[in-house]
Specification:
- By secondary structure, the protein is mainly α.
- The protein has two domains: 220 residues, HUPs (Rossmann fold), CATH 3.40.50; 89 residues, Tyrosyl-Transfer RNA Synthetase (Orthogonal Bundle).
- The chain contains 14 helices and five strands.
- The protein has a three-stranded parallel beta sheet with strand order 1-2-3. A two-stranded parallel sheet has the order 4-5.
- Strand 1, helix 1 and strand 2 form a beta-alpha-beta unit.
- Helix 3 packs across helix 13 and helix 10 runs antiparallel to helix 13.
- The radius of gyration is 22 Å and the shape is globular.
- It starts with 9 loop residues before the first strand and ends in a 6-residue tail after the last helix.
- The relative contact order is 0.14.
- Bound molecules: tryptophan.
- Tryptophan binds next to strand 1 and helix 8.
C-alpha cells in the first residue's frame, strides 16, 4: 500500500476535555501551540479528545461543559479555525474504527508497560486493593486510541508535554507493527517536546498542576484573579529588603507574561526590595491587561454554544474529508473489503 505524502508536514495535537485551563497550561501548551499554528509551512490539526475524556469523567454535564470551555478557550486566545483543522474527536467516527483495527495489531504486553496504567496499579497495591481496582479498559487502551488519533491523519509531528512521550513512542510501535503485517501505510510520528517553554510554578511554589490544587485558572473574573494572585506564597522579607528572583513563584510568572524590558524592570524592583504586596499588585495588572480581551471573547463564546458547535462541525467535515478515504485504504489493506 502506498504511503500518503503530504506537501506540508502535519502537526497534530489533542486536548483532553477535562478540567479548567490554568496559566500553566496557557504558557506551557496553549500559547506555543497557537503561535506554531500560524506557521504556514506546516498543516495543523487540533482536536478535543472527548473520547479520552470519558475514561476519567463519567458525568455527562461536566464533560459537555468542559468541551465547551476548552473549545472557547482556544478560540478566544486566537486559534484560527480556518487555518487549523479544529475538531472534536467524537465527530470523526473513522478514528474509533481505526482504534479497533490498531488494537488488533497492538501487543497487550506493550499496554502493560504504559506509565499511566502502571501508576494506577501501583496506587491500588499501595492501598491494599486488587491491582485492577477501578481501572477500566479505556484507561488500559488509552495509548491505542491516541495512536489512532495520530495515525488517522498520518501526522508526523506531535507537540506534547514530556509526560506524553511514551504514548507517542507507542504510536510509533503500533504503526510499525501494522506496516510490518500489512505493508507500509502509516508514517511514523515523532513527539515535538519544547523544553524551552516555561513550566510555571503554582501558588505554593510546586509545578502548577490541577493535581496539586495550586493553579491560577486562566479566565477568572478580574476580582478573583487578583485574590488568587495574592495567594502566591512568599517569604517574610519586609519592604525594602532585597528579594531573590526564586524566592517565590511570582517572578517566573511575571517573566512569562512580560516583555524583556518589563522583566528587567521587575528584576530591579526585586533587588531594590519591592514589597511583596506591591509586586503582586503589579503582577495582577500585567496578567489582567494581557487577558482582558481574550477573557471578553471567552465570555461571549461561552454564551454562544451554537457558534462553537458550528465551528467544530466545519472542522469535523475537513477532518473527515482526510480520514474517510484513508480509512477505506486501510480497510482494503487488512481484507475488510467487498467480496463481490
Ligand atoms: N493524551 C494527551 C494528554 O493527556 C491528549 C491526547 C489525546 C493527544 N490524543 C492525542 C495528544 C493525540 C497528542 C496526540 O495531554
Amino acid at each position: 500500500m502506498e504511503t500518503v505524502n503530504h506537501q506540508r508536514p502535519r502537526v497534530l495535537t489533542g486536548i483532553k476535555t477535562t478540567g479548567t485551563p490554568h496559566l500553566g497550561n496557557y504558557v506551557g501548551a496553549i500559547r506555543p501551540a497557537i503561535e506554531a499554528s500560524r506557521d504556514s509551512r506546516r498543516e495543523s490539526f487540533f482536536f478535543l479528545a472527548d473520547y479520552h475524556g470519558i475514561i476519567q469523567c463519567q458525568q455527562p454535564e461536566l464533560l459537555q461543559q468542559s468541551t465547551l470551555e476548552i473549545a472557547a478557550t482556544w478560540l478566544a486566545l486566537g486559534l484560527d479555525p480556518t487555518e487549523v483543522v479544529f475538531y472534536r474527536q467524537s465527530d470523526v467516527p473513522e478514528i474509533m474504527e481505526l482504534s479497533w483495527i490498531l488494537s488488533c495489531v497492538c501487543a497487550k504486553g506493550l499496554m502493560n508497560r504504559s506509565h499511566a496504567y502502571k501508576a494506577a496499579v501501583a496506587d491500588n497495591e499501595a492501598a491494599g486493593e486488587d491491582p485492577d481496582f477501578g481501572i477500566n479498559m479505556g484507561l488500559f487502551s488509552y495509548p491505542v486510541l491516541m495512536a489512532a488519533d495520530i495515525l488517522m491523519f498520518n501526522a508526523t509531528q506531535v507537540p506534547v508535554g514530556r509526560d506524553q512521550l511514551q504514548h507517542i513512542e507507542m504510536a510509533r510501535d503500533i504503526a510499525q507493527r501494522f506496516n510490518h503485517v500489512y505493508g507500509d501505510c502509516f508514517e511514523l510520528p515523532e513527539a515535538l517536546i519544547e523544553d524551552s517553554v516555561a513550566v510555571l510554578a503554582g501558588l505554593d511554589g510546586r509545578k502548577m498542576s490541577k493535581s496539586y490544587n495550586n493553579t491560577i485558572p486562566l479566565f477568572l473574573p478580574e476580582k478573583k484573579l487578583q485574590k488568587t494572585i495574592n495567594k502566591i506564597k512568599t517569604n517574610l522579607l519586609e519592604p525594602g529588603e532585597p528579594k531573590q528572583l526564586d524566592d517565590s513563584a511570582l517572578f517566573p510568572i511575571w517573566r512569562a507574561f512580560a516583555t524583556s524590558e518589563q522583566s528587567d524592570y521587575m528584576r530591579e524592583q526585586f533587588a531594590a526590595g519591592i514589597a511583596w504586596g506591591q509586586a503582586k499588585k503589579e503582577l495582577f495588572e500585567l496578567i489582567n491587561d494581557h487577558l482582558r480581551e481574550p477573557r471578553q471573547r471567552y465570555q461571549q463564546l461561552l454564551e454562544s454554544g451554537t457558534q462553537i458547535e458550528s465551528i467544530l462541525q466545519q472542522g469535523a467535515e475537513r477532518a473527515r474529508a482526510a480520514a474517510a478515504p484513508f480509512l477505506d485504504q486501510i480497510r482494503q489493506a487488512i481484507g475488510i473489503r467487498s467480496i463481490a
